[in-house]
Amino acid sequence: MFTKILIANRGEIACRVIKTARAMGIRTVAVYSDADAGARFVKLADEAYRLGPAPAAESYLKADLILDIAKQSGAQAVHPGYGFLSENEDFAAACEAAGIAFIGPPASAIAAMGSKSAAKALMETANVPLVPGYHGDNQDEQFLKTQADNMGYPVLIKASAGGGGKGMRIVERSDDFIAALASCQREARASFGDDKVLVEKYLTRPRHVEIQVFADSLGGCVYLFERDCSVQRRHQKVLEEAPAPHLPAATRQAMGEAAVAAARAVGYVGAGTVEFIMDVESGQFYFMEMNTRLQVEHPVTEMITGQDLVAWQLKVASGQPLPLQQHELAIHGHSIEARIYAEDPDKGFLPATGTLLHLVPPVENAHVRVDTGVLQGDTISPFYDPMIAKLIVWGETREAALQQLDAALAAYQVVGVTTNIRFLRRIAANPAFASGDVDTGLIARYHDSLLPAPVAPSSEQLALLAVGETLAAASSDDHAFGALQGWRLNGELTRRIGFTHGEQRCDVLLRYDGKGFVLTIGDDTFHASASLHGKRLAANLGGKQLQATLVRHGLQRVLFTGGERIAVDYLDPYAYEEAGVHGETHMKAPMPGRVVALLAEAGARVAKGEPLLILEAMKMEHTITAPADGKVLAFYFAAGEQVNDGDELVDFEAD
Ligand code: ADP
Ligand code: ADP
Ligand code: MG
C-alpha cells in the first residue's frame, strides 16, 4: 500500500479522499490555487503546495507542475478526483511514465471511453445495448440529416467529446436539423476543442440509471449496483439515489452484467460508472457513456453497500485484489444524495458567490452524511463549481430515506450565499418523486410547483424577527440608550419595527408593558417573552414556545425556525422615517456581477431615471438609474470590480 499520495483536486472531493487516506495511515499532499490558499482541504492535508492563480488552466490543470510536485514530495500515487485532470489520458500516461501510480484506469481505457462515438462503436462489439443512432466518422451535414430523418424525430445531437451536460441539442423536426447541428458543433468546438458529433434517437421519457463498476489489475471485475440520477435540470444531476426505485431484480442484474462487459472490453481497472438511459415505458436500457473516474454521487453506493469506494480505489491502484467478490455484495436500505449549490433558483439558477457568513450543516450520524469542502467564513468564488456540499441520507426504506432527507435539508442553515436548499426540499416533497415515479423530465414537468413565488413572512416569523431585533439592539453596547430603555425614556409607548421582504414592507408594532412584549402585526396580536443568546432566540408567543436561529448581518436578517428559513431586510429607523424617494438611499446590487462603468461623478446632481452605473452579470448588462432627482454622494466600487448580491453600489440622496 502507498504511504503517501497527492490529490490533484480541490474542495469537497479532496477532503473526501483525505478522510479515507488518513483512516488507512496514508499521508496526503494537497495542491492549491491562490483562491484556495486557506481552504479546508489545504488545512486537512499533511502537506500542501501552491500551483498558481485561481483559473483552473493556471492551477488545477497544470499537469506537468502537479507531477513535479508529486515527485518532489515523494508521493507514490496521484488521486485525480473528478473533473479537472481525472479523464485526461495524457496525464494518466505521464503518471505511468514517471513511475507514479494514477489512481484511476489505464490511459488506454480513458482514451477508449473518452469519445462517446468511439465508445459506442466498441460497446456494439461487446454486445452492450445502444440507443439507435449514428456514431460513425462521416460528419457531412446532409449525411447526418438523412440519418436523423431515417431514425425519426425527435433526435439528439451530442458532442462526441462532451460532458457535464454540455454540447447537446434536441431536434424536433427535420427542418431544424441543420441549424441545430451547426450550433452543437460551435459549442463543442468552444468547450471541448473537438466538433465531432453523434446523432441518436431522443427518448421522450427516459430514466438515467448508471452502474458502479470496479475492476482490479488481476482480472477481477464487479458491479456495485445502480444509482438513479433521473432528477436532472438541463441534463445535470440534482438528486441521486440508490437503489433505483421500482427496478426489477432481473433488470438490475442484466444492467450490472452489461456494465461489467463494457469495463472488460476496455481493460478497465479501478472505479468507473457505466451510464445507461432507460425507456420508462418498455424498461429497455441502452448504453450512454462511461465515466472513467470516481463519480460525484458515489456516496449513495457507499451507503447501501457499506463499502468505502476510495479505499477500494487505493487498494486496487496499489495492485491488491478487489476487497469483495460479486456474491459478497448486497444492497442494504436506501440512500439519496442532494447536491447543495450556491445558486438562485428564483433567478434562473444563476450561480451565486459570496461569503458563507453562517453555515450550520445538519448533525452527521448513521443516517446523515455531509461531504463538503467549506466551513463558515469561507468564500464561494466564481472560479469553480459552486457546489457547497453533498447531503447524503440513508434509511431502511426509500420512504424512511426521504423523511431523513427532508429533515436534514430543513436543518441545513446557510446565510451569505443563496442556495437551492428550498428547491431540493420541494422536489423531495413532490408526489411523483416521493412515489418513485422518476424520469429526466420531472423537474421541467413540475416547474411551477417546484418554483413557486416567494412566500411572505408569517405573523409568527415577523414577531420573532421583531423581538430578536429589539433584544439584539438592547444588548449591544453602541445602543445603550436604544431599544428597551431608550424609547421608554422618551415616553414612547409603542415602537414600529419595519422589515422588507422583496418589494413588500412588513411592519410590527411593539410595545413593552414592563413584563413582556405586546406585538401587533396586521390583525394579529401576541403577548411575548423572549431571550437572545448569540444567534439563539427563544420566545414564547402567546403560550407557544419557539426556538429559532437569528443571523444579523448589515441590514440583512435571516431567521431559521420550524424548518423554515426566512430572509428580510431590516429597515434602519433613520432611513425608514424618510423611506421612499426622499433622503439618503443606499442602492444595492441586485445580483453578483462586475461593474462595467460609472456613468456619473460622485457629487453630481442627476435627474430621476438618469443612468448611474452599469453592472454586468451572466453576460447581460443592467443599468442602475437614479430613483429620484437628487445627488450622487458616493460610489462604492470602481469600474472592473466584482460585486456580490446585495453589496451597496451607490450612496444617493434624493431632494
Ligand atoms: P457526474 O455524474 O460525476 O456529475 P457529469 O458528467 O455530470 O458527471 O460531469 C462531469 C464532471 O464535470 C463532474 O464530475 C464535475 O467535476 C464536473 N462538473 C459537473 N457539473 C459542473 C458544473 N456545473 N461546473 C463545473 N464542473 C462541473
Ligand atoms: P454528459 O457527458 O454530459 O453526462 P450524457 O451522454 O451522459 O452526457 O447525457 C447526459 C444526460 O442527457 C442524460 O443523463 C440524459 O438525461 C440525457 N440524455 C442523453 N442521451 C439521451 C437520449 N438519447 N434521449 C434522451 N435523453 C438523453
Ligand atoms: Mg453523463
Structure description:
With 655 residues, the chain is of the alpha+beta class. Mean pLDDT is 92; it is low at 477-492 and 574-579. β2 (27-33), α2 and β3 form a beta-alpha-beta unit. It is built from 19 helices and 39 strands. The protein has an eight-stranded antiparallel sheet with strand order 14-13-10-11-12-15-22-20. An eight-stranded antiparallel barrel has the order 24-25-26-27-28-29-30-31. A five-stranded parallel sheet has the order 3-2-1-4-5, sandwiched between helices. The protein has five domains: 4-103, Rossmann fold; 132-201, Dna Ligase, domain 1 (2-Layer Sandwich); 226-265 and 296-304 and 324-450, 2-Layer Sandwich (D-amino Acid Aminotransferase, Chain A, domain 1); 459-571, Glycoprotein, Type 4 Pilin (2-Layer Sandwich); 586-654, RNA polymerase II/Efflux pump adaptor protein, barrel-sandwich hybrid domain (OB fold (Dihydrolipoamide Acetyltransferase, E2P), Beta Barrel), CATH 2.40.50.100. The termini are far apart. The structure holds adenosine-5'-diphosphate (2 copies) and magnesium ion. The site of one adenosine-5'-diphosphate has 11 residues, from β12. Pfam families: Biotin_carb_C, Biotin_carb_N, Biotin_lipoyl, BT_MCC_alpha, CPSase_L_D2. Residues 120-318 form the ATP-grasp domain. This is 3-methylcrotonyl-CoA carboxylase subunit alpha.
